[in-house]
Design brief:
Elements: H1 9-18, H2 28-38, H3 43-50, H4 54-61, H5 69-78, H6 104-117, H7 122-139
């Protein structure tokens, strides 16, 4: 959609990441469990493939702990899924119909942006978005 008046999917994702109240709620542990069961795998299977302890996997699936992005990547690899699969929810559109799935690199990039954006004020957030828009429009030429 570069060159149109519509925001880029990455920009829309950035806006929702800097305003968590706009994000849909998600239980990553439940998501992991659902994919694991769909694949017919046990927590022990994931443990063997990742080296993560079964008790840790249980704590993640039950929502007692939230895994890092690196740990999520290991779990996704063990299930032979792209990491981005954990962040897509076909049942919850939240106004994002027709947007492409984010790649693993895009998920990592947006996670980094989110980490640093929490300390930015509204003015700085607007400046960052303006710079991203400018860079995106320049790369389309």
């Amino acid at each position: 959609m570069i060159g149109t008046n519509f925001p880029l999917p990455e920009v829309a994702a950035l806006v929702t990441m800097t305003h968590p109240e706009m994000l849909p709620t998600m239980n990553i542990g439940e998501t992991i469990r659902n994919y694991r069961l769909q694949k017919g795998m046990s927590q022990g299977d994931i443990e063997k493939r990742t080296g993560l302890l079964r008790c840790y996997l249980s704590r993640v699936e039950n929502g007692h702990t939230i895994p890092s992005l690196d740990t999520l990547s290991k779990i996704a690899g063990a299930m032979e899924l792209p990491l981005s699969q954990f962040f897509s929810d076909p049942n919850h559109s939240n106004g994002s119909k027709g947007l492409p799935q984010l790649s693993d690199d895009e998920v990592r990039f947006l996670s980094q942006i989110r980490r640093y954006s929490t300390s930015l004020n509204d003015s700085d957030r607007k400046l960052v978005l303006a710079m991203v828009k400018k860079m995106a429009s320049n790369s389309a030429k």
